[in-house]
Write a structure and sequence with these properties.
The structure holds two protein chains of two kinds. By secondary structure, chain A is an alpha+beta fold. Helices cover 45% and strands 20% of the residues of chain A. Chain A has helices at residues 47-54, 64-73, 98-108, 115-133, 136-149, 162-167, 170-180, 196-207, 255-266, 272-278, 310-327, 331-349, 352-366, 372-381, 384-394; strands spanning 2-7, 13-18, 25-31, 77-82, 87-93, 186-192, 228-232, 239-247, 283-293, 296-305, 400-405. In chain A, helix 9 crosses helix 15 and helix 10 (272-278) runs antiparallel to helix 11 (310-327). The chains are: A alpha+beta, B alpha+beta.
């Protein structure tokens, strides 16, 4: 496994973890932009995600159908995703297609944004918004992010609303593109069985002419609003509950302890929430996860329960967190959590696609390269004192709470 | 590097199949037990799902917590699921922990405690998961579609019904499991980092004294099929269609997979191009191939807002039927590349490999190497695809929709 890095004169950084024994290679453009970078004063809510769709709709050289066809001709596994703070375009192919997939991805990164394609794709975005309306956990997540972050830019919805999407103009999108897709704000990441020199050559010829300009992002910390709300939806059978509290950011060394903490508290099986809620069938689902974000972070708890046991379930979860903040973890829990995390990371890291996001986000958030073994070492170095201390510092029960379901 | 496969059949009926993989440190296990939901007693649907939770509530010398603790400390990521034909137990961990994990699973499968007090919460959890399905119409329509499409009881919802679950009793489920958690007909597949001799000895040591009867064959009654609409106030209409396809052991299987790829192999395939890219009717439209041992189907899904639902259904059905007018060499070439590429990339994942080994052995009674599958894919011609499309036409579609209003069913051709 070999790490490579180079920055082109226009600021585009290329990084790669080369693994000659892999059967495939994966490449992706990681753009440091998302809904948090959308201006709240303009009618552009959802533009980052809509733009991600438009990047597949053709360039000066390619029609939308050309793009899809070429990916298919390579047998590529390809897609893109947009979050509050990243937009990522990626493809995994057999090594023989390295040059071709890069040619395609790089070309896509300078899209034509044609008006008729824009109007057509708008309908697809509206369908996607409707799709998520039928998925309660997603609805809950979007609303609790808005509620928890309040005035903070991380409160912005990724999808936007039907109204904001209807109102969005093609020129608004072009303007957003011209403010966010500067080469200095983009990282080309590659993993697997790849030819590094060819990668740099291809990136230079395809992306070297991209014009650079300055891009910024404010990354204030957020402690969350800690408010409580309920969305009543009598059509639902289950009560879906989310709570959110502040955690360490992506640049904070305590993120390793945070991973161990949430594995102990809220892993799907064998965690405190599992024994307190799922094993006795008080809730069908109860999990706690940690999400490191740019400059801040969150602990997220999800519970799905019978409506008539929902408040009991929430109280039990809170009691578990209180108890943990007093007593901290047991040695047995520390050992199990560390092994679970290490094993999961190893298995994910065996696939070039699995390694791509880990490598990319290490760079986007921290401008660092860490081999998988170093990450695992850091997980094993976390002590029970650090986990206990973190739980107290963050106050896991200082939460923003939102419930969705038949209950008031 | 040449692939290597191992198979060993034990006296008690257990079959061990394995493929070592260089360059990985993990190893994955998939155990397919003949205790799937289709074998649930007629009045006790949901038995296999309840069992998938109950098995982990203590086994051998360990209680629930000790089972979880030992698996966690071995870094074992495990999953239990009730499917139609099998109760599927899968586990992935570092290869060096494989022998210890197998020892724990020998307890889980051979000496589960199955106590009365752990039974009720497991059954209640299944009932809650069933309720949760109602809140997720997209997931629900797939479950309901299988129920309509496949002969009974092969397609029935593994979660059972409210009524069947409330009638489940620990003593009868224990009895049922005694006859179905059995090495006879069980396939254990292992892929990844291991030494065959050591693996074979470990399995012999821990599973060699496991005994049980051969489960009865499942007798089926014809599928209901036809058109079903479920009225529900959803944001999108969930549209599902299904029609028969060649099973995995059918010689037309490779043509079936190519046909599915032509419809839905990527964003350039027919369904995505016509339904989404040209008409923007949907965000999601997919065609999946699914095969049981004796029945298989092409399952098509599209989700769209109510006012565009009829057009979406009509365009989608039109695409399925347009296959009969011919397919291009270029489409076939893309489909071949996509199938082979997916195969190689899945081959990098130990869990995906273990699942594939178990599937091959169940459906074909043998294991297929990459070379064999690649050659078979390359051999499919346009004429083969057309023969297939005529043998398995998009007629007599089973349709199921969930949404505010009923749609007009597709006309018979």
């Amino acid at each position: 496994m070999q790490f490579k890095q180079q920055t082109l004169p226009n600021g585009l950084t290329i990084i790669a973890e080369v693994n000659p024994s892999a059967a495939s290679m994966a490449a992706g453009f990681f753009v440091r932009t998302g809904s948090r970078d959308e201006s709240p004063t303009l009618p552009i809510s959802g533009v980052s995600h809509f733009l991600e769709h438009m990047m597949f709709k053709g360039t000066d050289r390619r029609s939308p159908f050309d793009i899809n066809r070429e990916f298919d001709e390579m047998g590529a596994a390809y897609n893109a995703f947009t979050s509050e703070e990243n937009t990522v375009y990626f493809g995994a192919v057999l090594p023989e297609f390295q040059n071709r997939v890069l040619d395609l991805l790089a070309d896509m990164m300078r899209p034509a944004l044609r008006e008729d394609d824009f109007q057509t794709e708008k309908k697809v975005i509206l369908e996607e918004i409707a799709l998520y309306q039928d998925r309660p956990q997603f609805r809950l997540y979007e609303k609790i992010m808005a509620s928890h972050f309040g005035e903070h830019p991380l409160s912005h919805s990724v999808l936007g609303t039907p109204e904001s999407i209807q109102a969005l103009k093609r020129d608004d999108m072009l303007d957003y593109f011209n403010r966010r897709y500067s080469p200095g704000n983009v990282t080309l990441v590659a993993t697997g069985n790849l030819d590094w020199d060819a990668l740099v050559d291809k990136a230079s010829s395809s992306c070297g002419h991209w014009k650079a300009y300055s891009v910024s992002r404010d990354t204030p910390e957020s402690l969350g609003t800690r408010q409580s709300d309920a969305i009543v939806d009598a059509k639902l059978l289950r009560q879906h509950i989310g709570t959110m509290s502040a955690g360490p950011g992506a640049q904070d060394e305590r993120r390793y302890a945070a991973c161990v903490l949430t594995t102990i508290l809220g892993d799907v099986v064998g965690s405190r929430l599992f024994y307190a809620l799922v094993e006795p069938a008080i809730a069908e689902e109860a999990s706690c996860t940690y999400e490191p974000l740019d400059g801040t972070g969150i602990f997220v708890t999800f519970i799905s329960a019978d409506p008539d046991r929902a408040s009991e379930a929430v109280k039990i979860a809170r009691d578990e967190y209180d108890k943990f903040m007093v007593d901290g973890p047991t040695d047995q829990e520390m050992d199990a959590a560390r092994n679970k995390i290490a094993s999961a990371a190893t298995i994910k890291g065996e696939l070039p696609m699995g390694r791509l996001t880990a490598l990319g986000f290490d760079w986007v958030y921290r401008q660092e390269y860490k081999p998988l073994a170093d990450h695992i070492e850091r997980i094993f170095a976390v002590t029970s004192e650090q986990v206990h201390e973190l739980a107290k510092q963050c106050d896991l029960n200082a939460t923003t709470t939102l419930t969705l379901g038949p209950n008031e | 590097m040449a692939e290597e496969f191992f198979t060993r059949e034990f006296d008690n009926g257990l079959t061990l199949v394995a493929q070592p993989m260089a360059q990985v440190s993990s190893s994955a296990i998939t155990i397919a037990l003949p205790a799937g939901a289709s074998r649930d007693p007629a009045d006790s649907a949901g038995s296999a799902s309840t069992a998938s939770l109950w098995l982990l509530r203590g086994a051998g010398d360990r209680d629930t917590r000790q089972i979880n603790d030992v698996l966690d400390s071995l870094g074992c990521q495990h999953h239990e699921a009730a499917q139609s034909e099998h109760l599927l137990v899968s586990a992935a961990q570092l290869g060096r922990n494989l022998p210890k994990v197998l020892e724990v699973y020998a307890d889980i499968l051979g000496r589960p405690r199955l106590t009365d007090e752990t039974f009720i919460p497991c059954r209640d959890l299944v009932a809650q998961i069933l309720d949760g399905l109602e809140d997720e119409p997209m997931r629900n329509c797939h479950v309901l579609m299988r129920e309509k499409f496949y002969p009974s009881p092969l397609g029935r919802n593994p979660l059972g019904t409210k009524e069947s679950l409330s009638g489940l009793k620990p003593e009868s489920l224990r009895k049922h499991l005694k006859n179905h958690l059995t090495p006879n007909g069980t396939i254990m597949a292992v892929a990844g980092n291991f030494d065959w001799k050591e693996l074979s000895e470990t399995v012999e040591k821990h599973f060699g004294d496991w005994n049980g009867p051969t489960p009865d064959e499942v007798s089926t009654s014809p599928a209901e099929q036809g058109a079903t609409h479920i009225t529900k106030d959803t944001a999108q209409v969930q549209i599902t269609l299904a029609y028969p396809a060649a099973t995995i052991n059918d010689e037309l299987n490779y043509a079936a997979r190519i046909t599915q790829m032509i419809l839905c192999g990527g964003m350039g395939a027919r369904l995505f191009t016509e339904v989404r890219e040209k008409r923007a009717l949907v965000y999601a439209v997919v065609a999946r191939y699914h095969s049981l041992k004796d029945f298989a189907g092409l399952f098509v899904y599209a989700g769209t807002t109510p006012q565009r639902a009829q057009e979406t259904l009509d365009v989608t059905v039109g695409e399925l039927r347009r296959l009969a007018e011919g397919v291009g060499e270029d489409e076939l070439a893309r489909a071949r590349t996509q199938l082979k590429s997916a195969l190689i990339m899945q081959g990098e994942s130990t869990s995906a490999r273990a699942d594939a080994l178990a599937g091959d052995f169940f459906h074909l009674g043998r294991l297929r190497g990459l070379d064999e599958i690649s050659a078979a894919i390359d051999a499919v011609t346009v004429q083969d695809v057309m023969e297939y499309v005529h043998a398995f036409p998009a007629e007599n579609l089973t349709t199921l929709t969930i949404g505010p209003d009923k749609l007009q069913a597709p006309n018979p051709t």
